[in-house]
């Protein structure tokens, strides 16, 4: 087996591990019987998370424009890398907040409650599914497998953008109910 094949197999193994480990770790931390006491600063994290989701959405839009309009691969790569870093930061903030603060109930009533839960549930489900797609898209790009990268981002990009934008929408809808 060549070094390239071994490197690809290792990378694919890590992608599989992370694709299972991330949602599993989030689920375990969210389900802790007792919240961690990290101090009152964690109550600011929902606002940080809202900003992170907004910046991620913008990075994804700018990344698309960089490649489609400007044909600028380097700029495309920078915006996507920024989106990946922001996604990682989001995950750390999200887990920290939910492991240490009680869940906030949405108190809206009527049709708006259905809209909120539609966005929330679709956001959560798609955020789990987008993890392996994003990791594969980055792996293919960084490995120079541009044809595979182009094929997978046809699905990855709209899902990732939807997850980021609905993260902002969910934040805006529930933010009036946060307790500080």
TrEMBL record:
It comes from the Bacteria. InterPro entries: DUF420. The chain crosses the membrane at residues 12-33, 45-67, 79-97, 117-143, 155-174. It holds the Pfam family DUF420. The lineage of its organism: Bacteria, Pseudomonadati, Bacteroidota, Cytophagia, Cytophagales. This is DUF420 domain-containing protein. It comes from Roseivirga echinicomitans. Keywords: Membrane, Transmembrane, Transmembrane helix. The keyword Signal does not apply.
